[in-house]
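Appendix C reproduces, verbatim, an entry submitted by the partner laboratory led by Prof. M.T., so that reviewers can inspect both the input and the predicted structure.
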Amino acid sequence: MEAVTVQDCLVCQEHRGDVPVPGGHLIANDLVVAFHLPPLPDSPQVYQGYLFVTSRRHAPGFADLDDNEAAAVGQAITRLSRALRSLGAERVYVVVVGSGIPHLHVHLVPHWPETPPKVRWIDVDTWDGARRGGFEETERFTAKVAEQLNAGHA
């Protein structure tokens, strides 16, 4: 895989605000940045509640984090999973693929109650009845997540 610079890295661009994320950053500090999956030109409708937890520092994976960064990522995953659960998610799948973009980004993918049992975890965001929305709908949903974080429910 070709080396990706901080300037070219999509995750770094989302950190800097070069790529708008709906509702802004849910968590942003020196160690971690979390946000909702943004609609992109090739995918203008996104699954509601599909969040990313990323290391602030451009690090390819968990093994590249220091202990403080790893702890902050874990705490952010827990807090955001609680927020999604408080908004009705039955469970939250936590996935790290580690390919494509060499900047740690943990996927948090909620399983909503209306999802049929036959839908596999990897398909909860793509089945025909999945909760999807454009940028404005996703901003509204992200605001609800932020309310849960700020209210101490997460």
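The mean pLDDT is 92. Additional entries are available on request from the coordinating office.
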